[in-house]
Design goal:
The complex is a heterodimer of chains A (499) and B (165). Chain A is mainly α and 499 residues long. Helix content of chain A is 73%, strand content 1%. The N and C termini of chain A lie far apart (60 Å). Chain B is an all-alpha fold. Helices cover 66% and strands 0% of the residues of chain B. Chain B is built from 6 helices and no strands. In chain B, helix 1 (11-34) packs antiparallel against helix 2 (49-70). Classes of the chains: A mainly alpha (499), B mainly alpha (165). At the A-B interface, helix 8, strand 2, helix 9, helix 19 and helix 20 of A face helix 1, helix 2, helix 3, helix 4 and helix 5 of B.
Chain lengths: 499, 165
Amino acid sequence: MWDNLISGAVAALTLANIGILVFGTFVGIVVGILPGIGPMVGMVVLLPFTFAMPPDVALSMLLGVFCGGYFGGAVPAILMRTPGVPSSLITSFDGFPLTQKGEAQTALSAALLGSFGGGIISVVILIFLAPLLAHVAANFGPPEYFAAGLFGVTLVVMANRDQLMRGILLLGLGLWFATVGIDGATLSPRFNFGTLSLQNGLHIVPVCLGLFGVGQTLLLVERKILLTDRMNLTRSTLDFSKLRVTLRYWKTLIRSGVIGTFVGLLPGTGSILASFMSYEAAKRASKRPQDFGQGTPEGCLAAEAGNNAVPAGAMIPLLTLGIPGEALSAVLLGVFTINGIYPGPLLLIKEPVLINTLYVSIFLINVAAFLMLALLLKPFAMIVRVSTTLLAVNIMLISVIGIYAVNTRTFDAAVAVFMGVLGYILLRMKWPVVNLVMGVVLGEILENRLRESLSIGDGNPLIFLSRPISLVVIILTVLIVVIPLYQDRRKMRRQVEGS
Amino acid sequence: MNQEPKKAQSRTHDLFSAFLGVFAAFALITSPWNVDTEGPDPFYKGPLIFPVMVLAMMILASLPACMRLLSPPADSTWRLDGEGYPKKTLVVLGLLIATLIGLNLIGLEVSAWLFLSISLYCLGHRGVLKLIVLPLVITGLLFLVFKHFLGVFFPTPLIVEWIWE
């Protein structure tokens, strides 16, 4: 393990990797600070550029955007009560009251320390937990993989169970998109409606770029410029003396980092839940719980440590099972598969240097993001003054040209624009777009594993119940559907009886 | 099973769900013509089993919305979010589609510059800096990154070919 880690460190510390990682982190912080844009848009816009890069460098850049986005999201949440990323909303509960008291530097110190600590703790857990999970997953055959994939998509659907039917519809649409084109196993064309262009299928890159790079920015076109009068920073860099104050909360930092990592590990849970659970745990453990919500640095630290532990946590199921937990890690899976690397239990054995390079890269990204924000706090905070519409049209154009550049096919760009329109409609109606992305990404995996499993069982679907691991996973899948629905029904019945 | 919130929902959601359901039904009905199943594999190994399952799931999930669409609750409305008609979005979308066509017709540089300038003008930006200089800078960057550094092939603009002929 240590030899691989050292080899990974050597690969991660090359000038090319560090340069690209710092660039990715910079982009991540910028898109994280800009409310409404977020790391997903940053990642998909950079996606076409990764085709010219080796996989470790490409992944380092995208991971930089992923983690940098969470770092950056805290800045407008604390200074303006406008979360840059959704999970920073929890940070604003205590961050903005601190800013109103003239203690913005304390809040930012706590948030940055929390983000940094959460990120580092999650990398350490990733390094130790991923091989253990991969060891278990080494016993997996097609039925177990199918059951695990089913468990993952069920968790994602159930995470948005207030829109259950819409979630299932979008998941189905995503899974159907994945079937368009030539079927890999039989080489039969499917759903190309007589056009040659659709024979190559709907690839994840134009789909994601369209949904987020074009769809999200079409939504921003109607948005007004943010008011930034209340931005209150006493100096252009972070006040490092305030860091010592926040170091008192080291127990909260460790607890929140651990909670965030394990929440990130579960598909569909997302960073908001990680932030919220960490915040609540810190409040419960605090000697002064009444201070939470009034402006305590401990609240900012807990929320940020929780959400910044999510990226490394989400890497655990991605690397060991090949199952992404959310849209952001689904894009990372896309980069792996584009480079002919298929995440799963054997990945840790086949590509130990690549995996360890990623571990070290995540560590370096956290260091880079912390230093960048600490030293250039005011210039970064000023980014919110840039007009959203100005950014939106530029991102849109870069997305469309970028997607054309991947295969030099205007058809791919047209797919991205079509997906952009679909993404705009879904985002405007607040439907769970993540289900669509998960469907597109997991469609091929689920289909192949299903057909392989049925082949093993001579067409008998009971194959899934005849193997212990797949049986346990399927029982778990049934439970995560039945229990919340039963609880919801009981709650509703109580409300009816109460009224 | 339906867990949609009980508060008055816009009928637009139901309409869109129903549209997806109808589309799934169309894809399912036409699947024997759209999927080549001539191979020797039994159904469970073949290319049709998964799409059939997925499309059936979509149709089932759209049924509650279809029912609500046919017999709407008393307090239902078509109003979506009160954000109004997306005029600016449609203009920018139209310009983006025109840019795609323009890539072949007038080339990357001119279409990118025109898209940025006209879009920014339509979105209320004014001044030489925002309408001419900034689009020129971004177009220059696109040219440098895609054509120069990445060596991406962009077709010779048709208009140039016509002029030469």
